[in-house]
Amino acid sequence: MPLLFQSKRLCFSCFYLFATLFLALYVTVSPSIKCLLFRVTPYDPIQSPLFSYPSSYGQHKHVLPTLRSSCSSPVFFSDYPFVFKEIKQCCQNQTDSPLRYMQGKAATFGGNFSLEKRISYFDALEQRIEFPCGFLKPFPINDYDRAEMGSCKEVVVVSAIFGDHDKIRQPKGIGSKTLDITCFIMFVDDVTLKGLINHNLISKESNEYKIGVWRLVNVSSSEGLYRNPAMNGVIPKYLVHRLFPNAKYSIWVDAKLQLVVDPLLLIHSLVIKEGVDMAVSRHPFFTNTMEEAMATTRWKKWLHIDEIQMQMETYCRNGLRPWSPSKLPYLSDVPDTALILRKHGVSSNMLSCLMFNELDAFNHRDQLAFAYVRDKLKPRIKINMFEVQVLEQVVLEYRHNLKRGGSSSTTTTTPSPSPSPSPTNKLRIKRAQPALGNDGLGNCQQYFLEMWRESHY
């Protein structure tokens, strides 16, 4: 035996090297491990940090770990130069939406329409009538910001921080040309703006606020949209097509998330290549709307339990059923709407408007209204409900910066002339009343029987 192979230390080192290389190669190419697969050609990211925060701001505190290591349907990304060229071409060829929106003035931003009125608009496209879609009360931003938003003609990435509940997080992995066709807009209220000024991140003397890639748009709190900051955040989340009428694609990013993949790559892989109107992750735990409703009350995400019950009873009475294979190609009734990718067109715009009308009528918990609106919408919308593992690899999630004793779920969603609830009332849980419907069984009895059929029979 050669002397070279008689060294135990050398043999062990070689074995360790080859074992490490094999494991690294397996992790790289195995779709059961990685949900995101890039081609060999690098996708040209910006190397330098987009913005440096002062240490007092605490941009990256409380990151939440991800525990899922498997993935059944990985996402393949094309080369960045090809993606950039194709999205520019798609934006040039995409025509404007023919929807006509209701104009006029109302006491509330959303109009607070009755159930019968809201239902009548699910086939409004066929009737060719004006569509209710918010903005029945002025959206309080200045004319300069409104003009800048109108100049976003291709892709817009939108987020919002109301009530100073989150930190502004800069995206990672941005391609060198992405900022040429992509607007990053962060809506903030007066409270959040004051906090940013106190951290010396912006100057109150400036007419234009910008932090890294994000351009800040101040939504004046004094104008009184909704008393609940979370409901104010619903406006840019679901009415993005109205705030940015010239944009062709949009990505909504909850302020608790940080993008770590270029937005153009996400739109191309999850929307354009899939041929859909919208892309959103499935909920990591729930498939049925009622499961989400019960969790909402159990975890006190909305303290008015009787309102949740009334909402579910209303939906059951008007056709909501649990998920079943008959709903395919929809893979679930409950999305994770922290990240929403849209192609601005008739179907996605209609869904967004109808969703907003339901949230205006009940509460900002959009997962409760999603399946009801989606299933009643005509024509059917094409949705890519991708794996939750994909979501966990395209974003990082952080904890909200909630204040002690405060919660976005404790106040009513619709404005009222009555004073805001006192701190004592805000924390009081409103219990549900006895079930509505014949014989006290409620309109959702059939829903529960279908949802629990396997365990009951």
TrEMBL record:
Pfam families named among the record's database cross-references: TOD1_MUCI70
Source taxon at top rank: Eukaryota
Record InterPro entries: TOD1_MUCI70, TOD1_MUCI70_glycTrfase_dom
Domain TOD1/MUCI70 glycosyltransferase-like: 103-400
Annotated stretches, region: Disordered: 402-426
PANTHER family in alphabetical order: ALKALINE CERAMIDASE TOD1 (PTHR12956:SF13), ALKALINE CERAMIDASE-RELATED (PTHR12956)
Name of the protein described by the UniProt record: Alkaline ceramidase TOD1 isoform X1
Origin species: Spinacia oleracea (Spinach)
Source organism phylogeny: Eukaryota, Viridiplantae, Streptophyta, Embryophyta, Tracheophyta
Record gene name: LOC110805452
